[in-house]
Design brief:
Chain lengths: 323, 324
């Protein structure tokens, strides 16, 4: 097991090294931020001084190694625009995204698995058919539209829930969280629903497909033949047997939603990292883009590693191979 | 000996969009304590559906249309699912063909056995473990106490099937339905398991219904044979008598197609044609299109003829050698 973890960690660091090069080169190929940062009426001296002070006069490889050198000291650089350390900027925004995404992905998974198992267990019932119809909607209706309709319905027409912002926050471990106050929670509901809708549909489909397939296997027949009750068969046998694809998708969704909850954050003016990255792309704030993309890659690597460890925990056959 | 199972006129059909498939069509048989009954026939003859019907585990769109399944004096047909569940595993158990597919790969043997125990008995951890070790020992798993915490992939195919048999034995059921339990195993393991099953049946008094398409394995185990074709029992009798002296041409065909009876170098004999579609069965004998003895009278359904311990369903039964 330890060998497995070490092997994966080495793999992860290689992935991170490759990612840093790709991101760095990629972002620098997009465009030159000088034209945006420096007003057109600035004199030639000011231009050159600014370029030098930002290190943009150096060749690309030198800039890269300076970046990597700083990185080893935990310094991701300073934002061109805000003139703040990038890490501080991102970490300041991360909790907002984190709580929104965790709430939506977890509730989508729990809800989706329960509904999906039901739909797979009683595929011909009216409830199952309704569930599947909703899941088709979840796949096909664009997220921004759902967001707007949610605001229109619950915020504008009914006036039950606020349309945007984080609401009241409480400090925990030195970080501001919304989900701990009632007001904050009421602000999370709509964006979380918006984010969860697509994921719910996907989890329903996954759980349903897994259930339909698994219920026909001899494992389930054998358990039934032993007189084990249906409830226990679903909870103890089925849930475990269908969990591997669900956990895989859960991990992937968690990563991609954390990184790219942009649309929902924009619609609900949720001050998370998604809005930060969109703003920095608009003004070519290279340090923010680079740091953000590298942190995102790190996030994916960590999530995948966790998912693999969870697999090994669930499936003894994977455990045996890793040992 | 006491009668544990009495099946009368069992009919199980699948109501599909293409029509009604009569998978089991009027099957009757009885089973005494400790008896081993062999149920043979080609694929699609209704053997497995018969087995599942006995446990009330026919999947939709299948259902038992009529008949009686009297287990230990109580008719199971028409019992609500809750009542059936109480009997499954306790009074009647089932083991399957592929031990890799039957055990859950993600749960330890202890967990799976404990779940099966808990289904019908509430006992403490220690008592449960004792019972598990006891049955595992009975089916010939060496060092059962330490193997309890192993997972299915840590057992060989034969050992896995033994574990499955052990789970079926947990509650000392009156009847175990064994659906081709040795087909997926290699021949030497097959022989071991057959031997052990026979002594288990004698020791515990558990009656066995041994479903197989392989006459050779069944004949070494079963005291009586039931030959099925197209959902019907076409011949029945004590194993030796049926094998030495089949009355139904289909049974004859099955015996002739055994590799052991063939001359080396000659092609194996086979029954011409394939099993008929159960959707389009006519009135007559379903074996007629494949039968060399068929005449016009075979367009009407043959009734069951019986002599002492033997029974067959044919208009042109083969001659009884010796007895005639």
């Amino acid at each position: 097991m330890l060998g497995f973890v070490i092997q994966r960690l080495i793999q992860a660091s290689l992935v991170m090294a490759a990612m840093s090069v790709i991101v760095f080169v990629g972002v620098y190929a997009i465009g030159n931020p000088i034209e945006i940062i420096i007003p057109p009426e600035a004199t030639q001296e000011i231009r050159e001084a600014t370029i030098r002070s930002l290190g943009l006069d150096l060749p690309l490889w030198k800039q890269y190694f300076i970046f990597v050198g700083n990185l080893t000291e935990g310094d991701f650089g300073r934002s061109f625009i805000y003139n703040l350390p990038v890490l501080e900027l991102i970490l300041g925004r991360l909790p907002a995204t984190l709580e929104l995404v965790l709430i939506s992905v977890i509730s989508a998974t729990v809800g989706g698995v329960v509904l999906g198992i039901y739909a797979g267990y009683r595929p011909d019932s009216i409830i199952a058919k309704t569930i599947m119809a909703v899941s088709v909607l979840g796949f096909s209706v664009p997220s921004f539209w759902v967001g707007l309709i949610l605001i229109l319905t619950f915020a504008v027409n009914l006036g039950w829930l606020p349309a945007g912002g984080r609401g009241e926050t409480v400090s925990l471990f030195g970080v501001q969280w919304s989900f701990l106050t009632f007001d904050g929670l009421s602000h999370i509901v709509l964006p979380a629903l918006n984010l969860a809708f697509f994921k719910l549909a996907m989890m329903i489909r996954l759980a349903r497909a897994g259930t339909r397939e698994t219920m026909l296997t001899d494992t389930i027949k054998f358990a039934r033949a032993a007189g084990i009750s249906e409830g226990r068969i679903l909870r103890r046998h089925l849930l475990k047997l269908i969990s591997i694809p669900i956990i895989t998708v859960f991990g992937l969704e968690l990563g991609s939603t954390l990184a790219f909850a942009v649309v929902t954050e924009t619609i609900f003016s949720w001050p998370g990292v998604g809005k930060l990255i969109i703003d920095s792309i608009a003004v070519l704030d290279r340090p923010v883009m680079v740091a953000y993309l590298i942190l995102t890659a790190l996030l994916f690597v960590l999530i995948n590693l966790t998912v693999d460890l969870v697999f090994a925990f669930i499936d003894p056959r994977i455990r045996a191979k890793g040992a | 000996m006491t009668l544990v199972l009495d099946v009368q006129d069992l009919c199980t059909s699948f109501h599909t969009r293409a029509g009604v498939v009569k998978a089991v069509n009027g099957v009757s048989f009885t089973l005494r304590k400790g008896e081993v009954l062999g149920l043979v026939g080609e694929s699609g003859s209704g053997k497995t559906v018969t087995g599942f019907s006995l446990l009330g585990l026919v999947d939709a769109p299948g259902r038992i249309d009529r008949g009686r399944i009297v287990l230990n004096g109580q008719d199971l047909v028409g019992l609500p699912e809750r009542e059936l569940r109480k009997r499954r595993g306790r009074d009647i158990a089932m083991i399957f063909q592929d031990p890799i597919a039957t055990l859950n790969p993600l749960l330890s043997i202890r967990t799976q056995m404990t779940m099966a125990l808990d289904a019908h008995a509430s006992m403490g951890r220690a008592a449960a473990e004792k019972r598990c070790v006891e049955v595992l020992e009975k089916v010939g798993i060496p060092d059962p106490r330490s193997r309890l915490d192993n997972y299915p992939h840590e057992f060989s195919g034969g050992m896995r099937q033994r574990v499955a048999i052990a789970i079926a034995l947990l509650h000392n059921p009156s009847v175990i339905v064994a659906d081709e339990p040795t087909t997926a195993l290699d021949v030497s393991i097959q022989a071991q398991i057959l031997h052990e099953m026979r002594s288990l049946a004698q020791e515990t008094g558990t009656a066995l219904i041994w479903i197989s398409h392989d006459l050779a394995t069944v004949s070494s185990l079963a005291t009586r044979l039931l030959v099925m074709y197209a959902g019907r029992v076409v011949e029945e009798g004590p194993t030796a008598e049926v094998l030495n002296n089949p009355r139904h041409p289909y049974t004859r065909g099955l015996i002739d197609s055994l590799p052991a009876t063939a001359e080396p170098g000659k092609p194996l004999s086979q029954i011409p044609g394939t099993t008929p579609s159960l959707l389009s069965l006519g009135q007559g004998c379903p074996f007629k299109p494949r039968c060399t003895y068929a005449t016009d009278i075979c367009d009407t359904a043959p009734a069951l003829s019986a002599v002492t311990k033997r029974a067959w369903r044919c208009h042109h039964p083969l001659a009884m050698e010796g007895a005639a």
